[in-house]
Design brief:
The protein is of the alpha+beta class and 107 residues long. It has one domain: Winged helix-like DNA-binding domain superfamily/Winged helix DNA-binding domain (Arc Repressor Mutant, subunit A).
Length: 107
């Protein structure tokens, strides 16, 4: 199988899980760049051009809250999962586990 075929399917799989990864990580306030690093350190590399629009969309949906920290030399916007975001994460994780179990039955 060509590498580009695998890469394309892996990208689709990760695209579907980036919301879960972000919500799971944001149980404590984190700014965007630190979130990128945390996800990458966990083996879940996400491009900044993907993450920042996602954070704005999740905030608009009420799944994240944000707050500016202007105490440091450079202002940073910190994001944190909201109660609705936590509820969504739990639902998505339950569905993810069910899908995984179903796939395991098919193997």
């Amino acid at each position: 199988m060509p590498d580009d075929v695998l890469a394309g399917h892996l990208q689709e799989l990760r695209r579907g899980t980036v919301v879960m990864a972000a919500l799971a990580t944001l149980s404590r306030p984190t700014y965007g760049y630190a979130l990128l690093e945390t996800l990458a350190d966990a083996g879940f590399a996400v491009d900044a051009n993907t993450l920042y629009p996602l954070l704005r969309r999740l905030e608009k949906q009420g799944l994240l809250t944000s707050e500016w920290n202007t105490e440091e030399s450079r202002p940073r916007k910190f994001y944190r999962v909201s109660p609705d975001g936590q509820s969504l994460l739990e639902s998505l994780l339950a569905e993810w586990q069910e899908l995984h179990a179903s796939i395991e039955k098919l193997r």
